[in-house]
Amino acid sequence: MAKKYYVVWAGRETGIFTSWDVTKRSVDKFPQAKYKSFATEAEAKAAFAKSPNSSIGQSSAKPSTTKMASTKTKASTSSTATQASNQTVLSQFDVVIYTDGGCEPNPGKAGSGIAVYRQAKLAELWYGLFNPNGTNNTAELNALHQALLMAKAALDAGHSVQIMSDSQYSIKCISEWAYGWKSKGWTRKSGEIANLDIIKQAHELYDAIKDKLTIQHVAAHIGIEGNELADRMSIYAIDQQHTPFSQFKPPLDIGKILALRTG
């Protein structure tokens, strides 16, 4: 049997695989999984560097044991970004926004941070929303809310945008769970919904732009520059006890910023 190369754009792990068993574990029962097989490594690499919508649906060898990925063009939340797939994201979107929140201890002093890339280059850093009695989840949600505000402005200007958050909690709150809570009058049987005010604000904004936007979970603290910079900004907000959400003043010396205290 000829060797196949499986590209996974959205799954438990993303990348190019040569084993269908590994690929299936990544995509099986994964919501809105996006994947496809190719006959050559060159074809697979070329496809992985592009949007899945440009490849899915075109003729190519495919596994017979499962249906191919959805061809919806609607943007969505997707898989955890690793080092390799993160670089692909930067090349695919005009604007990529990394978010992070920190809290010391948890609960305790909290702050939020953002790193904005334009055309694959670091353009802006943001920090603030210090709360002396916050939580890590609240800080993460605050950062994601600010990213959504930035994303809307960029989308309105005609740019393609992706948000990268290392908080599965925040992503699921605003893109999944909020729909059920809202349908029940913002209540749930198990008790009070924590962080409801910021969830409502972020969800309303997300719901308005979700058809044009992708939010992806990014693995934390594995050396992905944007994630690390957002982390430094969240801790910088705590150290500075900075309540407004403000742009970090240039020059953006990445080495010096990464040398700041981590969360």
Could you give the topology of this structure?
Blueprint: E1 5-10, E2 15-17, H1 20-27, E3 34-38, H2 41-48, E4 77-81, H3 83-92, E5 95-104, E6 108-118, E7 121-134, H4 136-156, E8 161-165, H5 168-183, H6 196-209, E9 213-218, H7 225-240, E10 245-247, H8 254-258
Parallel strand pairs: 4-9, 5-8, 8-9
Antiparallel strand pairs: 1-2, 1-3, 5-6, 6-7, 7-10
Helix pairs in contact: 4-6, 5-6
What does this 3D model show about the protein?
Monomer. It holds the Pfam family Cauli_VI. Its EC number is 3.1.26.4. This protein is an alpha/beta fold. Helix content is 37%, strand content 26%. The strands form two sheets. A seven-stranded mixed sheet has the order 4-9-8-5-6-7-10. α4 runs parallel beside α6 (196-209) and α5 packs across α6 (196-209). The longest helix is centred in the middle third of the chain and has 21 residues, at 136-156. The termini are far apart.
Features:
263 residues, alpha/beta, seven-stranded mixed β-sheet, 8 helices, 10 strands
Biggest sheet details: 7 strands, mixed
Number of β-strand runs: 10
How would you write the strand order of the largest sheet? 4-9-8-5-6-7-10
What fraction of the residues are assigned to beta strands by DSSP?
25-35%
Share of helix, binned: 25-40%
Low-pLDDT ranges = 57-76
Shape: globular
Cofactor: Mg(2+)
EC number: 3.1.26.4
Enzyme class: hydrolase
Keywords: Endonuclease, Hydrolase, Magnesium, Metal-binding, Nuclease
